[in-house]
Design goal:
124 residues, mainly alpha, 2 strands, 70% helix
């Protein structure tokens, strides 16, 4: 069932979301300073590509001073807008019964896109 849902996710916009994250990652990695942020957008691209059957967990290192600082910079430099767009898409998809599973995946992406540093994506 999860594989079918992932394929439907890809067809109805997941591939475009993942491509956007990969392009943003490549643009961020052009500079030395943007490499840590580019790595986080690659993490988001992987989750956006195949979200069903994956879970986001906070790692033990998530409370570290560097991760808190990087998450704060991430939020200020655009993470809030990424999160809000996933929340809006999730709310729109949850209007219909058929869209609820896809809306829940957008809510998962919203949570990790707000503060990606220190988060791990694991298969369930």
């Amino acid at each position: 069932m999860g594989c079918l849902m992932n394929i439907l996710w890809l067809v109805f916009g997941g591939i475009l979301t993942a491509i956007e994250y990969v392009v943003a990652s490549l643009l961020l990695m052009v500079t030395i300073v943007g490499i840590p942020f580019g790595m986080q957008t690659l993490k988001l691209a992987g989750l956006a590509l195949w979200p069903f059957g994956k879970e986001v967990r906070s790692g033990a290192r998530a409370d570290g001073c560097l991760y808190v600082l990087m998450n704060l910079l991430w939020i200020l430099l655009g993470g809030i807008w990424i999160c809000l767009s996933h929340l809006a898409f999730g709310a729109l998809l949850c209007i219909t019964v058929i869209g609820i599973p896809f809306g829940l995946q957008h809510f998962k992406l919203a949570a990790v896109s707000l503060t990606p540093f220190g988060k791990d994506i694991v298969s369930v």
